Amino acid sequence: MLVELTPLQMQYAIAALSGLAAMSVILALAWPWVARDRLAERMRLVERDSRRLRRRDRPHEASNGRERSILFAREPNRIFAGIVESLSLARLTDESGASQSLRMAGFRGRAPLVTFLASRLIAAVAMPGIAIAYVLLVLRQDLPLPVLAVIVAAGAFLGFAMPKLYLRNLITKRQDNLRRNWPDALDLLLICVESGMSSEAAFRKVAEEIGTQSPDLAEEMSLTTAELAYLSDRRQAYENLGTRTGLDSIKATVIGLIQSEKYGTSLGKTLRVLAQESRDFRMAAAEKKAAALPPKLTVPMILFFLPVLFAVIATPAVIQALQTI
Predict the structure, then answer these.
(1) Whether 243 contacts 252, CB under 8 Å
(2) Which residues, in sequence order, are CB contacts of 153 under 8 Å at separation 6+?
(3) pTM of the complete model
């Protein structure tokens, strides 16, 4: 049944619709200035929590002004940025791989990437000069030109590889720290989940509690908390945690969390099984290191202990024999 409007009602309806359309356009244009930046707020909260955890665990670093930000790195050095931009080092190198390696080492932002790329070039240029100066000025060796060319090439290669080796060493140390403390974090996460907390609140609580034991793990869990809050796909937040750490135990936990949310299985049971597996894996790694200790001690004992032992045992007999003769 159609309702026939009078001309006056038609005018009112047109005026109301025009006003509503005008308000919608104004609201759409002004929304970026009216709405609060939820993402920036959450990232600032994570940054504040990470700084508080680092100050609580490493007060000497905070007092010396060496506190490192995990989210908002300082601006890149102008000299390093100029070198990278003028020579297009980001294009010539694997920027994505370098960024991933830096994130695994705990460095985030543009500044560490620029410093890493520039340091590789500077070291590749400086090391040959240092090597040649050492050979000519310190050793005072008059070497032929081919040998000097080999020294220059070796110095350039070594200088170019040194920052990468240093970064790999940092990644190894950080992964060892995460691997040792991950089972304890899973136990805390299990307690929080079984007490009725959501996964986001559980991650935040565990980040606060694990900070004194492992600031690196607290930073990763705090960042995961922020990503769970603002990313539209929670699966991506979990996958980012596994990608940043690069540990199989954490990746297995990430897969369990994703499947638990996807299929609706019990998160508590999943975490209990994953925590037990992580703890067994840590114990197996410790037993493996203990089993590898005797073979590693064999060569040092043969080279350093046995000659001294033989000398102590045989010296009195040798002295008596010489006195008798």
Answers:
(1) no
(2) 128
(3) 0.65
